[in-house]
């Protein structure tokens, strides 16, 4: 079976050596030494400050909304994983959807300003497939209208924009360290705040609102464990090599796929390093996509409709804005398998099947 992704696992002996220390200390969670070490090493790797390791990539957006006191309208993207919208609804906010750009699939910053009302408090934008949004334009709007900016950077670890980590923008940037990501801790995530006062507030909110016997605020449990941190410490030094491996496979796809009837998102201007988080293709129609999926299935190849559906069409989202570009792209986009270790021969097979399927549709 060739799935759309496969988790990278480090050398078991290396991971076990870190766990031996956990057994010796019997310090399993609650800001243990491996968690603190991982946070420090990630700050160095990304060149950021105020990074907090957390439970997953969803709860960190919840924390950001709470710490920034966002309770009303949030302008957001319809083209993301459902967690981006779910968090807004869960926290009692109203998602207001701005359609996406047809070239890079990120939120169309030109469409944000007409949606701003007296109730707008923030912009929540996703760096789609690790590809940065139009950051300068979004942040100019935020300054003009006194809005907060939260970036869902679930896919963006290791990517850079104008020589800085993509995660080093906005009032808060968040990331997911789920097992399928470029960098992972099995389950996990982080948030990066861009001032120390906000960082301290987020820290309290994620640890029940107290430190020792001193209580500062309300809070929830967003802590992560020494076991997850140990995985991160093993994977982090390999990230650059993993990105290079992803790049090699992506370039093989680029050279073998027939682009006469498919397309790909383009990189946003300003991207100085891409992390090759996914390999999405856009078919000519939804039926063409379904034909490709059906053709790959007998070969044991499992791509993914990622992202699907357009979030403004979710059945529990009420009175959502129409987003024709997102709705169209979401119906036709398919992520092909991409992970370090995917054999060149398997990539050739995938490309052959895709090319034959789209050729059959054209006949």
Keywords:
aminotransferase, about 375 residues, alpha/beta, Aspartate Aminotransferase, domain 1, Aspartate Aminotransferase, domain 2, seven-stranded mixed beta sheet, 16 strands, 11 helices, single chain, 2 domains
Query: What is the 3D form?
Result: globular
What is the percentage of strand-forming residues? 15-25%
Low-confidence stretches: none
Q: Would you list the SSEs in sequence order as H and E? A: EHHEHEHEEHEEEEEHEEHHEEHEHEH
Strand order of the largest sheet: 2-10-9-6-5-3-4
Task: Tell me the number of structural domains.
Answer: 2
Count of helical stretches: 11
How many β-strand runs?
16
What's the SSE blueprint?
Blueprint lengths: L1 E2 L8 H14 L7 H14 L4 E4 L4 H9 L5 E4 L5 H9 L3 E4 L22 E7 L8 H11 L2 E5 L7 E2 L2 E2 L6 E5 L12 E5 L2 H10 L4 E2 L2 E2 L10 H10 L3 H18 L14 E3 L5 E4 L3 H11 L4 E2 L21 H9 E4 L7 H19 L1
Parallel strand pairs: 1-15, 3-4, 3-5, 5-6, 6-9
Antiparallel strand pairs: 2-10, 7-8, 7-13, 9-10, 11-12, 14-16
Helix pairs in contact: 1-7, 2-7, 3-4, 3-6, 8-11, 9-11
Family: Belongs to the DegT/DnrJ/EryC1 family.
Keywords: Aminotransferase, Pyridoxal phosphate, Transferase
GO molecular function: transaminase activity
Give an overview of the whole structure.
InterPro entries: DegT/StrS_aminotransferase, PyrdxlP-dep_Trfase, PyrdxlP-dep_Trfase_major. It comes from Fibrella forsythiae. The protein is of the alpha/beta class and 363 residues long. It folds into 2 domains: 2-237, Aspartate Aminotransferase, domain 2 (3-Layer(aba) Sandwich); 239-362, Aspartate Aminotransferase, domain 1, CATH 3.90.1150.10. It is 37% helix and 16% strand. It has 11 helices and 16 strands. The chain has a 7-stranded mixed sheet, with helices on both faces. A 3-stranded antiparallel sheet has the order 8-7-13, with no helix packed on it. Helix 2 (33-46) packs parallel to helix 7 and helix 3 (59-67) packs across helix 4 (82-90). The longest helix has 19 residues, at 344-362. The protein is globular. It starts with a strand and ends with a helix.
